[in-house]
Amino acid sequence: MGVPKKKTTRRKKGNRRSHHHATAHSFGKCENCGELKLPHRVCPSCGYYKKVQVIKTAEI
């Protein structure tokens, strides 16, 4: 049976959970307009992805 024989110490528990932290998103510049965007996503400001217009954006 999977019953622990001894109590898991704070150090062991902390070492096991050392990689469970949140990471920040990485941003890249859009090749078309230069705005920051998430990688492998369509640019929300201009609608381009890999130098091809994918979606039309409302021009103000």
From TrEMBL:
Residues 1-23 have a biased composition (Basic residues). The lineage of its organism: Bacteria, Pseudomonadati, Deferribacterota, Deferribacteres, Deferribacterales. Residues 1-24 are annotated as: Disordered. Belongs to the bacterial ribosomal protein bL32 family. HAMAP family: Ribosomal_bL32. Keywords: Ribonucleoprotein, Ribosomal protein. Pfam families: Ribosomal_L32p. The gene is rpmF. It comes from the Bacteria. One of its GO terms (cellular component) is large ribosomal subunit. This is Large ribosomal subunit protein bL32. The keyword Ribosomal protein applies. One of its GO terms (biological process) is translation. PANTHER family: 50S RIBOSOMAL PROTEIN L32 (PTHR35534), LARGE RIBOSOMAL SUBUNIT PROTEIN BL32 (PTHR35534:SF1). GO terms for molecular function: structural constituent of ribosome.
